[in-house]
Design brief:
Layout (H helix, E strand, L loop, with lengths): L2 H21 L3 H20 L3 H17 L4 H17 L1 H4 L6 H30 L3 H8 L8 H8 L13 H9 L7 H8 L2 H14 L15 H6 L1 H26 L4 E2 L28 E2 L8 H6 L3 H6 L3 H10 L9 H16 L3 H7 L2 H19 L8 H28 L2 H10 L3 H37 L1
Antiparallel strand pairs: 1-2
Helix pairs in contact: 1-13, 2-8, 3-4, 3-6, 3-8, 4-6, 10-13, 11-13, 13-20, 17-18, 17-19, 18-20, 18-21, 19-22, 20-21
Length: about 475
């Protein structure tokens, strides 16, 4: 592990005991104590580059004040625009920010766009006379326009500051002003029990199969199968490290009680409660097994590994950010053109992650795989007369197994853009394996289209035959 990874690990592990301390304190302790710890951590890791995030926060506050009816869209443009300024320091003659400042900026971007949109929803609900219960389902526990102090405390709360998870202002307010969460020690240990083993395995796999091997001159001399197979351990090492980071980040939230809701609230990652629920006076009013932390759930490792759908794999990965993209970006895309809408969402996601060309190449290939999967499932459903989920026998098992196999290979193929980052290096690897996993989804689309036309033609002939028989009668 390099110094950067050790720093992140130290931040994650250090947040756990802090959570136990703040959890039992009063609301002001959680609000100002959590913000003080986060601000100190940001200053220690980012130094003067902390001013970038502060400027983003103050700019969002100004938008809330000056553009109350358009704060959602205006703040989204502001925070995404500032990201471009932040990531091009050489243009402005500024020093290069450290990676910790980049992580902080990413999370502040999500928080400010979400906050501004929720405040706009609150103001519109007040103007329309929407009931408080309906408003609560839209924006969580946000009851008034937050002050600058509220926004600063939310922005620099130490929980999720550098690593996520993302959580809405309403979820944060529930933590600050609500009762302390349920007993956390046993739940925490259960939550992170696999993290040490996954971390060690990730380090060993990364050392045995380094991703940079694809840049070596002798890589092209390897057999085609060996070149293609390298992406399997590379992606395994990447996702194991991310599993550890996200599970530990969730553990910090669990220890503090952030994101704890009764199961009856049906909380979702990032969004928070999705149905009306009653805030208990104390956590003892609800049994321990009736609480969950779904609102801050970042990853579903088991679902990621064994789920067979490509779309399902996306939804189980960085789940709170996936919700943010769906809520604030995807819904703004053209509804009549799903492929364009998906491409727009992936473009914004790539932009949020960085300006590296390899990431854009990977993200913009995602809509192709989504379209191919949907086309294949539709074609198979039309051929067999039942959805693939309900297809029995060895055919159903084989086809579902093939879908899982292709999903994993697609994710491994696309992950090379994240690992290598640069567009030239990514294209060099994809060219070395003949862009095979670009060709596969194209072949699936063509096959599904041909099968669909064949079925239409067959149904047309059947109708003509029935009409002739009826005419003869």
């Amino acid at each position: 592990m390099n110094r950067e990874e050790l720093t992140y690990l130290g931040v994650l592990l250090g947040s756990i005991p802090v959570g136990f301390v703040l959890k039992e304190r009063g609301p002001r302790w959680r609000q100002f104590g959590g913000a003080a710890v986060g601000a100190g951590l940001a200053l220690l890791t980012c130094g003067p580059h902390l001013l970038h995030s502060l400027g983003t926060v103050l700019g969002t506050w100004a938008i809330l004040t000056c553009l109350p009816r358009r704060s959602g869209g205006a703040a989204l443009l502001w925070v995404l625009g500032y990201l471009l300024f932040f990531r091009t320091p050489w243009v402005w003659g500024l020093p290069e920010p450290p990676p910790y400042a980049n992580a902080l900026q990413l999370l502040v971007t999500l928080k400010m766009a979400s906050l501004a949109s929720d405040v706009q929803e609150l103001r519109e609900a007040e103007l329309k006379g929407v009931t408080s219960e309906e408003t609560r389902l839209l924006i969580g526990s946000l009851r008034r326009v937050p002050s600058l102090i509220d926004i600063l405390c939310y922005s620099y709360c130490y929980l999720g500051l550098l690593t996520g998870p993302f959580y809405r202002l309403g979820t944060y307010l529930d933590w600050v002003w609500g009762p302390p969460g349920p007993p956390a020690l046993r739940r925490l240990l259960c939550h992170v029990r696999w993290a040490p083993a996954l971390g060690v395995l990730g380090v060993l796999v990364g050392r045995a199969w380094p991703a940079r091997a694809v840049l070596e001159p002798q890589f092209s001399a390897r057999p085609w199968g060996a070149r293609l197979a390298l992406m399997v351990p590379v992606f395994l090492a990447l996702r194991l490290r991310l599993y550890v980071g996200w599970l530990c980040a969730e553990g910090g939230c669990v220890s503090a009680g952030l994101g704890a809701y009764p199961k009856t609230a049906r909380a979702r990652p990032g969004q928070g409660p999705t149905v009306s629920w009653e805030r208990p006076k104390t956590c003892a009013d609800i049994p321990d097994n009736q609480w969950d932390f779904e609102s801050i759930r970042t990853v579903d490792p088991w679902g990621t590994e064994v789920g067979r759908r490509f779309r399902g794999g996306l939804r189980r990965w960085n789940m709170t950010v996936q919700w943010w993209l769906a809520a604030y970006v995807h819904r703004r895309g053209p509804r009549r053109y799903p492929i364009v809408r998906n491409a727009w969402t992936m473009l914004v996601s790539a932009y949020w992650h960085g300006l590296h060309g390899g990431q854009y190449l990977s993200f913009l290939t995602v809509p192709l795989w989504l379209a191919a999967e949907a086309a294949a499932e539709g074609a198979l459903s039309g051929y067999f007369g039942v959805p693939l989920d309900n297809l029995g026998g060895w055919k159903g098992s084989a086809l579902r197994g093939l879908q899982w196999f292709l999903k994993m290979r697609a994710f491994e193929y696309l992950s090379m853009g994240f690992v290598l980052r640069e567009a030239a290096a990514t294209l060099r690897f994809w060219a070395s394996v003949h862009f095979c996993l670009h060709l596969v989804p194209l072949l699936i689309l063509l096959t599904a289209a041909a099968a669909g036309k064949g079925r239409e033609k067959g149904r047309g002939k059947g109708r003509e035959g029935r009409e002739e028989e009826e005419g003869a009668l």
